[in-house]
Amino acid sequence: MIRTAVPAEAEAVAALHLRARSTYYPDGVPPSDRDWRDVWRDVIERPDGHVLCAVEHGGIVGVASFRTPDGAPADLVKLFQFHIDPDHWRRGLGTALHTACVEEWRADGMRTAVLDVHVDNTRARAFYTRQGWIPDPENPPADGDHHEYLRYSVHGNHGPGNGTS
User: Fold this and answer.
1) Is residue 104 part of a domain?
2) Which of 16, 53, 87, 123 has its CA 20 to 30 A from that of 80?
3) Is 125 helix (H, G, I), strand (E, B) or coil?
4) How many structural domains compose the chain?
């Protein structure tokens, strides 16, 4: 089942976020002074944001957060976080969660979707490519960006959820 997350689930979402991020940082997740439970609670409670979660057997096994960034066109949405519990990979949950995101974006009149993905996260990059995302040459990562993110974007009816690129 895919549904909207509620603030009481911030701890479960933060734990899933940590498990998923741990898979693409070969030397471990960089130290942070953030309390991810508080971060996720704030994200879930944002009036302009959306957090969808995939639930299986009563537990959260996937999460996606998105919103229109400040100053961006009203028909642009950014996928800020997209995580599937590593114990649930290759079972179709990511595709189902992604499809739910795309359906919500289209229902909300979004024409452009963007995301950033860590350059070393080859699994995620391959997943997004399979979903129809393409590299955005107009918005390359900044020189010296220590996170080395790549940007993908999809415009109009060409891209996520319809198998075209």
Assistant:
1) yes
2) 87
3) helix
4) 1
Rounded Cα distance between 91 and 44, Å, is 26
Contact 54, 22 (CB under 8 A): no
Global pTM value: 0.84
Domain residues for the domain of 88 are: 2-155
Instruction: Give Dmax over CA atoms of the chain in angstroms.
Output: 44
Helices (H), 32-139: 36-45, 93-107, 122-130
- Residues of the chain with confidence (pLDDT) below 50: 146, 148, 157-165
Q: Do 131 and 82 touch, CB atoms closer than 8 A?
A: no
Per residue in 104-143, pLDDT tens? 999 999 988 988 887 778 888 899 999 988 887 777 666 7
Q: How far apart are CA 50 and CA 31, in angstroms?
A: 27
> Which two three-digit tokens encode residue 60?
């959260």
| Residue 159 DSSP one-character state | S
Instruction: Tell me how far apart the terminal alpha carbons of the chain are, to the nearest angstrom.
Output: 28
**80 found inside a domain:** yes
| Cβ contact 80:28 at 8 Å | no
Question: Which amino acid, 113?
Answer: A
Structure tokens at 103: 């359906």
pLDDT at 150: 61
The CATH number of the domain holding residue 82 is 3.40.630.30
